[in-house]
Design goal:
The chain has about 425 residues and is α/β, with parallel strands linked by helices. The protein has 13 helices and 18 strands. About 30% of the residues lie in helices and about 20% in strands. The strands form 4 sheets. Strands 1, 2, 3, 4, 5, 16, 17 and 18 form an 8-stranded mixed beta sheet that branches. The chain is globular, with a radius of gyration of 21 Å.
Length: about 425
């Protein structure tokens, strides 16, 4: 525990306004006691934040912590360790666990297990019982237990009637429905994006249309019900267009993009000779789709940045491409990729990028934004957007190591977080 801390010489960034100022922050008993210049912390430990920014703590609203049931891939503790390394003080975890997060006791189990970590964990509960897409889960009870949203992530809600009812019920609870946007009838056994690369390689594809058709259906349902639809891990240019047009029509829709979907293309599968670390769901798309993700971020169509952190054990990934599970880890590399692909080229300003990691995810999930103000609980991320470093194996805090980004040069790093009375400093990259 680090209840008292004096952070000196930092640059405070307000993600809501984009305003910055130089100041010290004195934390006492986990609360921001004073903000100003030349503060005296008495006997409190001192951290020199010269050259570093300080914002309210970041949140990744789409991660897989695997516990309960798949602790050999990841646990809540190791996932939170990876989050802290990446600069995140909060994550929202998806329900494809075993048992799935479809009953209140599982929601409460996750919250209890996360209580001792420096990262806040918000469970996303199932839309349907067992994620089977047949019978709606007890949404009211799940929300009372602490669920912040509903999703069958990894298993699209194929039944239109169920999706309609879910949107109606969730709207009464003021919670979003997060759908895995894929019509499985269009590519039920696909392994990579449908296009010239999949044709050349002879790999069964996942068509972009399967995502776009599901989004179009769900937008109509959201318009009809008035419910809040959140599009998970958007990945195609047409999908961005659909969301953009829906927002213009006043439909209550939000969306997120994963770091790998604005960084890599389907050509990576061929370049890496079928590395299973290039297999994710939705799959890597084309260069045009990557540019559309960036444009969607630039014009505000895409609200939030996330990772879809999806750990898998080495023995699961070290198989033939078509036999491997989908997914990669992403918490440790998120900010370095955001700095490299979005901030450095001018797609987003620093303040805009931070807002998509702080304001947007919490607004979507109906959570309060931590405030950089005296008297508020200290919930902070310390970072820069300029440090260049190479991501290596020893930087992985996750229990799994399935990433395509080993050896990548990153731009910008998270130096530390402070949350729940604990200061976690990143010593690994100097």
């Amino acid at each position: 525990m680090t209840p008292d801390l004096l952070i000196q010489n930092g640059t405070l960034l307000d993600p809501e306004t984009g305003q910055t100022r130089r100041a010290d922050i004195l934390i006492q008993n986990g609360t921001i006691a004073r903000i100003g210049e030349g503060l005296d912390g008495g006997t409190a430990p001192v951290y020199d934040a010269s050259g570093r920014m300080i914002s309210s703590g970041w949140m990744d609203m789409h991660v897989h912590l695997r516990e309960p049931g798949y602790e050999y891939k990841e646990t809540i503790a190791t996932g939170c360790g990876a989050a802290a390394f990446g600069g995140f003080t909060a994550v929202a975890c998806m329900p494809n666990t075993n048992p799935p997060i479809h009953t209140r006791d599982v929601v409460e189990f996750i919250i209890e297990r996360a209580a001792t970590t420096p990262v806040d964990v918000y469970p996303i509960a199932c839309v349907s019982k067992e994620r089977a897409g047949k019978e709606m889960a007890e949404m009211g009870d799940l929300a009372d237990g602490g669920a912040v949203a509903f999703s069958d992530d990894g298993s699209p809600v194929q039944h239109s009637g169920l999706m309609r009812r879910a949107l109606e019920y969730a709207s009464m609870l003021d919670k979003p429905i997060i759908n895995h946007m894929e019509d499985l009838t269009m590519g039920p056994k696909g392994h990579m994006n449908e296009g010239s690369v999949s044709t050349r390689l002879g790999v069964l594809p996942v068509p972009a249309l399967s995502e776009e058709a599901m989004i179009a259906r769900d937008l109509l349902l959201a318009e009809f019900t008035g419910g809040h639809l959140h599009v998970a891990h958007i990945s195609t240019a047409k999908s961005v267009d659909l969301v953009r047009e829906a927002k213009a029509r006043g439909i209550h829709v939000t969306t997120e993009v994963c770091t790998h979907h604005f960084t890599l293309t389907d050509e990576e599968v061929e370049k890496t000779d079928f590395s299973t670390h290039t297999k994710m769901h939705p799959p890597l798309r084309t260069a045009a789709d990557v540019e559309a993700m960036k444009e969607g971020l630039r014009d505000g169509t895409i609200d939030a940045l996330c990772t879809d952190h999806a750990p898998h054990a080495s023995f699961e990934k070290e198989v033939e491409f078509i036999a491997a599970p989908f997914g990669i880890i992403g918490l440790e590399t998120a900010w370095g990729l955001i700095g490299r692909e979005l901030i450095a080229p001018g797609v987003l300003t620093l303040a805009e990028a931070v807002a998509k990691l702080t304001v947007a995810p919490r607004r979507i999930l109906g959570l309060p934004l931590p405030k950089l103000a005296e008297g508020e609980p200290a919930n902070l991320t310390l970072f820069d957007a300029s440090t260049r470093w190479t991501f290596e194996d020893h930087h992985i805090y996750s229990k799994s190591r399935n990433t395509p980004f080993l050896g990548y040069e990153m731009t910008g790093k998270a130096w530390a977080i402070y949350n729940k009375g604990r200061f976690v400093e990143n010593f690994e990259i100097q």
